[in-house]
Amino acid sequence: MARLGTFAALIGALLTTACATLPAETQRTGSAPVAASALAQPQIFVSAANPLAVEAGMAVLRRGGSAADAAVAVQAMLSLVEPQSSGIGGGAFMTWFDGTTGEVVIYDGRETAPAGATPDMFLDGNGRPLSYAEAVTSGRATGVPGAVRMLAMVQDEHGKLPWDKLFTDAIRTAEDGFTVTPRLGRFLQGNYPQLQSSDVQTYFGEADGTLVDPGDTLRNPAFATFLRRLAEEGTNALYRGETAQRIVARTQAGPLPGTMTLTDLAGYQPVRREAVCNPYRIYRVCVPPPPSSGVGLLQLLAMLEHTDIAERGPQDPQAWFLFAEASRLMYADRDLYVGDSAFVDVPVAGLLDPAYVASRAGLIGDRAGPAPAAGTPPGAPVRTADRTLEPAGTSHFVVGDGDGNVVSITTTVESIFGSGRMVDGFFLNNQMTDFSFAPLLPDGTPAANAVVPGKRPRSSMTPLVLVDGQGRFAGAMGSAGGNAILAYVGKSLVGAIDWGLPAQEALALPNLVARGDAFQGEVGKFPPEVLAGLAARGITLRPGQGEDSGVHAVMIRDGVFDGGFDPRREGRAVAEPAPRP
């Protein structure tokens, strides 16, 4: 661990800066380890991006609820207090670790394209892709939401409390109001096309025509009313009846009206899938299969095992160079091949084939060159160049219950405030813009991520679970951040596993996102000698993507809980002894 010594001052500065505006309790619970259930007493824990969401989940766990129960409560609260990132009107991927059997299961609540969607829906009259600003606020932007039905499926299989008892905190907070946080306020002062929508202006608007500021109290009685119906009626409150009718009407309104119907909503089904798992160091890393990009993260880690990154450390520019070059190779493959495997062939096994991974890692040289091309893994189909745009919305949280069950879930409305259109107090997603805007080449060959009715758009969401050599839960992690999610999570894993950093310090490490010809990240957080070393290797890091990750994590080290929250957001990581039966 001596290699960490020269970096201690940087980490200390990062954490001091990150926690300066957070309550003292947040600082304590975010980093102080507590005994894990493998030793003395079972633990309950939540790591999420907002303290109110953490407390809503912990309240359910304290009542004897399961991780599935608490996940419902956390999502309901995030929908209210972090509406720019996730919500009832969006979708999610969940990785479930079963504390009894050790089984890892994926629950896919990704949105689907309506039956009336067409491959050219994001092309203008001249066959050119629409601008993102036009597409994101259009009626066509919204896919059939999946988070609620997915959460209901998981809660039905693994819940311990009644469904109608899981929304109490969110309903009360919606009625009484909550304090607008600095982060929400920052997005309301941003330059996003959604802010011009009438729904945003009405919900967040003040009498003088401005939008609410940090510190103001915001109430959402419409959301409280909807949650009461959701509690009483179950998922039919969203997928059938009056709310479904309002969703259809809102998405079919101009400009650029969509095609969603009541049949689309009523017919949505989440999918229970097998996890894709691959070894990394002493762990087995389990992620969702396509349309998630989890295979990309596994490939990145597999390539890094062919380097000496673990023998270096965060103060070594060569370590960051290796991470950047492996990231570029991974993204080249991910961008070309990953899509919804129900509609296109995704060479998952080929992308993780040891010989192929070794060949890709062998392309990492002494200096960064032009953007690498995608390789040809075993079983790879012919693919076209990708034209997918993926903004950096989303939220991730981790929940663990007293029975050893763990939820790792990444959830999203896609962009900032989704499409900017609201129904019953929640935002509708703009997930359809996660499809490729230009689905065809001149020869008519389709892109892997082209729009098809019923298809799920490719996602970078990668909620993972770590399993140790004895099949026990060893950690969970995920992030917000659009296509940068893979880099954020990859960096955090390297920090926590390879460099031995506590989870909080691993998440606080500067972000570096290398994709194609772009090298972006938190320039001001890297030591000058690291930036100079990267420049000598052909990488000039620039500000940009990398500034707003949302990694939340739990690690179990020698039976001790080690939780972390991304200091770039406003969350907490809390653990305490499980309640007695």
Could you characterize the architecture of this molecule?
The protein has 581 residues and is of the alpha+beta class. It has a domain at 33-273 and 387-511 and 547-563: 4-Layer Sandwich (Glutamine Phosphoribosylpyrophosphate, subunit 1, domain 1), CATH 3.60.20.40. Helices cover 33% and strands 15% of the residues. It contains 20 helices and 19 strands. The chain has helices spanning 8-19, 24-31, 51-62, 67-81, 132-136, 147-158, 168-176, 182-188, 198-204, 221-233, 236-239, 241-251, 262-266, 294-304, 317-337, 348-351, 354-361, 485-498, 503-508, 528-536; strands at residues 43-48, 91-97, 104-109, 178-179, 217-218, 271-274, 276-280, 283-287, 395-400, 406-412, 422-423, 426-427, 464-467, 473-478, 512-515, 518-521, 552-557, 560-565, 572-577. The strands form 5 sheets. It has a 7-stranded antiparallel beta sheet. A 6-stranded antiparallel beta sheet has the order 7-8-13-14-17-18. It is globular, with a radius of gyration of 22 Å.
